[in-house]
Structure formats: C-alpha cells, structure tokens
Write a structure and sequence with these properties.
183 residues, 4 strands, alpha+beta, 12% strand
Length: 183
C-alpha cells in the first residue's frame, strides 16, 4: 500500500465514522438501555452491584389496589382481602398477581421499561455526540424518577461492566470501518 492509498483510506474511514456518528450514538444508547433494563429486571441489582430494596411489606387497605391488578385472578384476590377487612402490602399485591416478590425488579406491567431508552442523540461538537438515555414519555420519566428517589440511587445508571461491554462494541465497529477502508 502506498502512502497516498493509506492517506485516502484514513480519510475515507474518518468520513465514514463522522457520517455515522449520530446513528452510532443511537446504537450505543440502545445498547446501554437494554443492558440496564436486563440487569434490573433479571437480577434486581443497582449499577454498583447491590440489591434494590425489598418490596414493601407494610399493609395498606386492600381497596387501594382495586382496579390495579394485571388479571382477574389478582383483582378477585384483592377484593376478597378487602371484603375480610385485611390489609395488603405491595409485596402481597405482587404475589396475588403472580409476580415475583424477590428480588425487586421494578416491573409490573412493563410500561415503564417499554418507555425507557434513547431520549436523544445530539451533536455537541465536531466528532462528539451526547446521548441521553431515560424515560421517553412522561409516565416512564415519572416512574424512573420515583424509583430512583426511593432507592436513593440513579437506577438507570449503567454499571462499569455495562459501560465496558458497550465500549468493546464501539471499538469492534470502529475496527471494522478502519479495516474496510484500509483494505
């Protein structure tokens, strides 16, 4: 390969990287969001590796859960408890609806996680994009914020492992572009 071919290949690789930067930013954000969601839903862990707090065992009047169940069986069980004058904790409410009670995974209907992902990808300078990951709608923003306050941590923060996996993906894609343009 001549010096001129090398210069041209480098210029082409740079142009391709810069042209694909917004798209790559979206991919990076989606990768991080998917990893964060997977960690919380499957393991109930914070970014630091600790467990989320347990679901509440404090009973409240059962009627407060009327109309909030995922299915008819859950609704019937809540109404039966209310008829007996019994309280229902959030942990009990989840169990009545056939959901896990440990570890805490912040998933009931899936609505919050469906609304979680890439909010924006903005160019903030030459060759630099800023990626915002969070609630993509008002309801998801509200729930993510409430859970973060309750857990006293930013629940959507990526772990170091998730960041490293994402960096590895970026590096592999950059290598492909460079190799393709210098071949």
């Amino acid at each position: 390969m001549t010096i001129e071919q090398l210069r041209k290949g480098i210029a082409n690789a740079k142009a391709e990287i810069l042209a694909n930067l917004p798209e790559e930013g979206g991919r990076v954000g989606a990768d991080i969001a998917a990893q964060v969601e997977q960690r919380i839903v499957s393991k109930g862990e914070t970014a630091e590796g600790g467990r989320l707090s347990p679901y509440s065992t404090k009973p409240v009047p059962a009627f407060l859960y009327f109309g909030r169940s995922r299915n008819q069986a859950g609704e019937a069980a809540v109404r039966a408890r209310a008829k007996k004058g019994e309280g229902v904790s959030y942990r009990d409410f989840r169990a009545l609806n056939g959901l896990n009670t440990s570890p805490k995974n912040l998933q009931f209907t899936g609505e919050m996680w469906q609304g979680f992902g890439v909010v924006s990808v903005q160019s903030i300078g030459y060759g630099v994009v800023e990626i915002e990951v969070g609630g993509k709608n008002a309801r998801s923003k509200l729930l993510l914020n409430a859970h973060s306050k309750r857990e006293n941590t930013e629940i959507t923060a990526p772990s170091q492992k998730e960041i490293q996996l994402t960096v590895n993906g970026i590096e592999a894609r950059l290598r492909e572009i460079i190799e393709r343009n210098l071949a």
